[in-house]
């Protein structure tokens, strides 16, 4: 009897050791979130045939032709880089390890294989509170992609076809109507909305082609960040033109 109890205890210790060194699934355990709502998250599942589905944040990988995409949007602000790392640890660990988190959040450009996954990171100089600072990082495996951005990146996600404002028939603004009301066969679009759309170098999420492979998804992520950079440059040029106009008018001392 004593020998049987000793064997049982040894098995229990071995099981505990294996569970502490493995990668348990998130749904099998209840993890405490230390920063609820600190970051915005998106999760998609792609079937590899041109269809996508919204999914829960479980960080599982796809199977067969299918693959998954998990995106984390870090907030803009004056927080330290270590706090951004804690945000990622809070939503990505497990299964990610510390070296994965450091590869995603550290400063400077980076591209390498880390623990069987491809990592790349591009950071522009400047404080994280600035709207002119861009950061993108990704972890790519055969059946999953995890990306991290600083702030919102337009057109990055996916929306059902037909929900795009660009597919609507516009109507000239009538001061007696509220923005969004339809007048006749068109939807009324205010001047400030037109000004915003004219500064965009891209379409909307509903117009995004659904990627059928992981590589096409990575191209989509990079492409949207390039568009975002062009948007920032356009806005900067507009602001500089405005300042130059004010200087020409002599409104600055």
Key terms:
Beta Polymerase, domain 2; 3-stranded mixed β-sheet; CorA_cytoplasmic_dom; disordered N terminus; alpha+beta; 33% helix; 253 residues
In summary, what is this structure?
With 253 residues, this protein is an alpha+beta fold.
Q: How many strands in all?
A: 10
Element-by-element helix/strand order: HEEEHHEEEEEEEHH
Structural shape: globular
Tell me the name of the CATH class of the domain at 17-156.
Alpha Beta
Radius of gyration equals 24 Å
Q: What amount of the residues lies in strands?
A: 15-25%
- SS-based class: alpha+beta
Helical proportion, percent range: 25-40%
CATH fold-type name of the domain at 17-156: Beta Polymerase, domain 2
Q: Looking across the biggest beta sheet, what order are the strands in?
A: 2-1-3-7-6-5-4
For the record, give the distance between the C-alpha atoms at the N and C termini, rounded to a whole number: 94 Å
Total of DSSP H or I helical runs spanning 4+ residues = 5
CATH architecture of the domain at 17-156: 2-Layer Sandwich
The residue-averaged pLDDT reads 79
Can you put this structure into words, describing what you see?
- By secondary structure, this protein is α+β, with helices and mostly antiparallel strands.
- The chain has a domain of 140 residues: Beta Polymerase, domain 2.
- Helices cover 33% and strands 20% of the residues.
- It is built from five helices and ten strands; from the N terminus they run αβββααβββββββαα.
- The strands form two sheets. The protein has a seven-stranded mixed sheet with strand order 2-1-3-7-6-5-4, sandwiched between helices. The protein has a three-stranded mixed sheet with strand order 8-10-9, with no helix packed on it.
- β4 and β5 form a beta hairpin.
- The longest helix is centred in the last third of the chain and has 36 residues.
- The termini are far apart.
